[in-house]
Amino acid sequence: MYCPRCGTQNDDNNFRCTSCKQILHDAPQPARPVQVDNSIATLIPYRNGAALSAYYLGVFSFIPFLGIFLGLAGFVLGMKGRSYVIAHPEAKGTVHAWIGILVGGFFGFGYLILTIIMVVALLQKG
After folding, report:
1. Residue ranges per domain, the chain?
2. DSSP per residue, 17-80
């Protein structure tokens, strides 16, 4: 490519003339950012590990004996996941966090209360 001002031959990729610094062509446009499909992030909040973990712990907290530990862990992680969603809305996972909070809390605290009642009843008998 020849410079229109001074006539110096330049490489076709040069933005400015190597001799007189005349602009040879428009600056290359930056590539448009790729749009990320957020539908997968809505279904599986992979950016919010606490909410995702809370969901699975809450779902499996119905298992007797293990339900205390799974449910309470799901409750705590659901609270962390919910606060993460508030701070980072693009992370998604609100529903997953609430399932961990509600279901995990229900079974975790429910089994804990039943265990305490059974222990107190056994101690009163003995």
Report:
1. 45-125
2. -TTT--B-SPPPPPPPPPPP-THHHHHS-TT-HHHHHHHHHHHGGGSTTHHHHHHHHHHHHHHH
